Amino acid sequence: MTLEYGDTASNTSSQKVDSISNQSSMVNKIIFVFGSNLAGRHGKGSALYARQEHGAIYGQGVGLQGNAYAIPTKDEQLRILPLESIRPYVEEFVRFAIAHPDMTFNVTAIGCGLARPPNQTREERVRDIRSLFESTQFWVQDLDVTIHDFPNINLPIEFGGERKFPNDANGEESKN
Question: First-to-last CA distance in the chain?
Fold first, then answer.
């Protein structure tokens, strides 16, 4: 199956679902996807859980590490990144997940807990981060698809997915 990131094409939903569903039998490795900082200091919230339970590597702020995948939502000085700075990391993650149908990616509500700006409500931040995932466009064999069409990417309910887990006092998910 040829997967390319970029332009969208016409939508034929029955073909789209059938084509993408063929990948699901290959899925076997579970990856915990969490919000990180560019310094890779996985010391709190979901990042700490990723380090303790899923092999996230202290000092590595981006990408696959152990059974975890880091998407930066803070910079090297632990300041919250603007949405447009988070966007390329979300797009990079989605391209990686599409290229690895043998892995299941359980995405946490990145950027909505410890990386939520103080002037934003959780609901506003969820809306903004969700839009980063949903605005990413894909091209799969002449079919227009969305993030929700890939069976190996499990988004949290807040982002339009089906994953539901309790959050701690900071809004961080810590159970896989």
Answer: 30
H, E, C per residue of 131-146: HHHHCCCEEECCEEEC
Mean pLDDT of the chain, nearest integer: 82
Backbone angles phi, psi at 12, to 5 degrees: -125, 90
Following DSSP, what letter does each residue of 147-172 receive, concatenated?
GGG-TTEE-BGGGTSSB---B-TTS-
pLDDT tens digits, 88-113: 999 999 999 999 999 999 999 999 99
Residue 144: which residues within 8 A CB-CB, separation 6 or more? 8, 9, 10, 11, 16, 137, 138
- How many helical (H) and strand (E) elements, i.e. helices and strands, does the chain have? 4, 8
What number does CATH give the domain 26-135? 3.40.220.10
Q: Which two tokens stand for residue 92?
A: 């990079």
Q: Residues with Cβ < 8 Å from 129, sequence gap 6 or more?
A: 83, 86, 109, 110, 111, 112, 159
The yes-or-no verdict on residue 60 having pLDDT over 90 is: yes
Q: Is residue 93 a contact partner of residue 60, using CB atoms and an 8 Å limit?
A: no
CB 7 within 8 A of CB 139: yes
